[in-house]
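Example S7 (structure tokens).
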């Protein structure tokens, strides 16, 4: 077996399953899960129709092998969306490529970018390439780093600065070994959006040390302010960086269009990196189904359903956040569909007791982070995914509020 597999840590939801082992939740209460960030809003009917229409068409249905680079019409639809959303003009032939969801691409990009050296399995954290990750973070970043033969380096977020990463705390010796840096904006689990000043700092560091920046932007279309979140490509253009040098942005239809089962997204940015990424993916066998491509074209070309979806999240958060804010330290995030709450004590004990007494599932914040400098930045916090219908989320919030009051 690949010895690097032994370096992987249990996924957060496996740890949650173990935490709940032996617990019998209150049978009188219907189970409500706020634990997994899986969109639950209905898929727009026109996307389903585009999917079913493509199945019956030939050769664009199931009767032909798809190209790894994607159909020109899909790449053009992705570029048209980038133009509408960010006022950017990208070359659909060289700067954009469809992927099977951002998760798959986040993992595969590390396998393309990282040069592990001669003996990656024997490397210690004090030697070999590094992949810098935010902390808390989406666990795919860590797994991608480890299985590429690199070591993850976690940069803790600062709660006093809306959980911004403290990039200035990273030693020069770490930057000099860094080959890839993951950022997530809007962030998971915090919902924080990176400002232009932070992008400027990261681009300066990338130019100095040569690492690639992977910008995970899958939550970009769910936001609560009047101005949409700044994207990495948009920041690049605003700062006058030619060709999106050393930057790959990754986005997805899953949250934007409520189609997580389609596994559809795209990457965009530095053409030289995308050329190598395409080569990797050609051998990896990662071509998107023609049926999914057809449905994706329809989704990227329509904004009305995105506006309606965002309105549903805004109403939901407007109802739920005040209920929870009465009993815990929680506030409306910049964007995304998570509430990141301070519970004032053990996050694992809170989650286990809440499940047992009120049949509501939340995710302990410590499961989404790693200890850095003697502290886990997710400790004493929980993540609540407000993905279900509004009434169900309101009911969960009322139960959580009752639970918190019962503990004081």
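Recovered sequence:
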């Amino acid at each position: 077996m690949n010895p690097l597999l032994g370096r992987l840590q249990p996924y957060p939801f496996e740890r949650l399953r173990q935490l709940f082992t032996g617990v019998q939740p209150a049978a009188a209460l219907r189970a409500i899960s706020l634990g997994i960030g899986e969109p639950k809003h209905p898929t727009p009917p026109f996307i389903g129709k585009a999917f079913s229409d493509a199945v019956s068409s030939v050769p664009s249905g199931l009767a032909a092998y798809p190209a790894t680079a994607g159909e020109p019409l899909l790449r053009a639809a992705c570029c048209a969306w980038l133009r509408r959303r960010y006022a950017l003009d990208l070359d659909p032939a060289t700067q954009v490529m469809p992927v099977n969801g951002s998760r798959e691409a986040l993992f595969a990009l590390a396998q393309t970018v990282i040069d592990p050296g001669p003996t990656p399995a024997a490397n210690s954290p004090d030697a070999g390439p590094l992949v810098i990750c935010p902390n808390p973070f989406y666990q795919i970043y860590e797994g991608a780093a480890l299985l590429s033969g690199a070591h993850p380096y976690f940069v803790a977020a600062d709660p006093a600065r809306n959980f911004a990463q403290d990039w200035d705390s990273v030693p020069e010796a770490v930057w000099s070994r860094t080959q890839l840096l993951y950022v997530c904006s809007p962030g998971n689990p915090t919902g924080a959006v990176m400002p232009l000043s932070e992008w400027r700092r990261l681009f300066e560091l990338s130019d100095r040390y040569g690492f690639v920046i992977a910008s995970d932007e899958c939550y970009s279309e769910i936001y609560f302010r009047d101005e949409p979140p700044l994207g990495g490509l948009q920041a690049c253009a605003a700062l006058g960086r030619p060709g999106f040098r050393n930057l790959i942005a990754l986005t997805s239809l899953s949250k934007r269009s409520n189609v997580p089962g389609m596994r559809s997204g795209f990457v965009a940015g530095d053409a030289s990196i995308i050329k190598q990424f395409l080569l990797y993916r050609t051998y990896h066998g990662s071509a998107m189904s023609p049926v999914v491509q057809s449905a994706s074209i329809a989704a990227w070309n329509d904004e009305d359903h995105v506006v309606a979806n965002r309105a549903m999240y805004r109403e939901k958060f407007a109802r739920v956040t005040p209920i929870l804010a009465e009993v815990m330290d929680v506030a409306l995030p910049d964007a995304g569909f998570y509430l990141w709450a301070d519970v004032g004590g053990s996050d694992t004990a809170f989650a286990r007791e809440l499940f047992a007494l009120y049949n509501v599932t939340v995710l302990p914040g410590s499961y989404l982070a790693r200890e850095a400098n003697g502290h886990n930045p997710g400790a004493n916090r929980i993540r609540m995914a407000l993905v279900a219908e509004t009434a169900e989320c309101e009911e969960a919030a009322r139960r959580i509020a009752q639970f918190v009051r019962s503990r004081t």
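Notes on this example. The chain is about 40% helix and 15% strand.
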